Amino acid sequence: MSDWIKFLGTAGARFVVYKQLRASGGIWCHIQERDLIIDPGPGTAYRCHAAKPKLNPEILDAIILTHRHLDHTTEANVMVEAMTRGTFSRRGALFAPADAICRPEPVVFSYLREAVERLGVLHEGGCYSLDGRVGFCTPVRHLHPVETYGLLFDLPYGKIGFIVDTAFFSGLVESYRGADLLVLNLMLFDPPPRPGIQHLDVAGARRLIEGIKPRVTIITHFGMTLLKRNPHLVAQQLQEETGYKVIAARDGMTLDLASLFA
Ligand SMILES: [Zn+2]
Ligand SMILES: [Zn+2]
Question: Please, are residues 134 and 155 in contact by the beta-carbon 8 Å criterion?
């Protein structure tokens, strides 16, 4: 097994993204000899080519958009062009909620939606497979202003949950139970300053870790308040409070899944 995931960016939300205080290139997963990218935000192509070793988006087998927000989809079009070799080769899969790829304002151009081999529409409770090799589910619709799904990968050696943008609700614990590795989009330090900001804060992250009990949790997708508190200290605090291992993602960080699941 030589599976790994790489954080091409750890930025969350508007200010951190447009100021590029952290990179915003999404997460590249190399699992079961398949390559997929989750939420390619601004700078993804640049981050792929600047990576050491370089990542070539032409080899992607799938692109997954968890929701239509800018920081998750800006370079979806670029990635589809790469995956389809400039649209000349019909290959690869694009997964996204209907809200992101259907009318009235799709985030992927129509000529690119037509260029992929498979267009998968994500929905609550859906399960999907890439050539029977990589399987993932979208167990629950998240609490977020647009149609949003997290991902739960079921791999021979364990389960990986990606709890992307969402406000906390107890159904998340049920939905992602069994995840051995949990990736949490932790944007806020304190509770949201006003209703309508539907993102996790540290208290919500703590409840998720205590409820789901993953072997390892990675926090990422940091907003301003989280960055100011230093994500590494926040991870340390969560680890001490919950007793479970918590790591703050860094731009370009690669996680070797073999050592993690050993
Ligand atoms: Zn986001
Ligand atoms: Zn969002």
Answer: yes
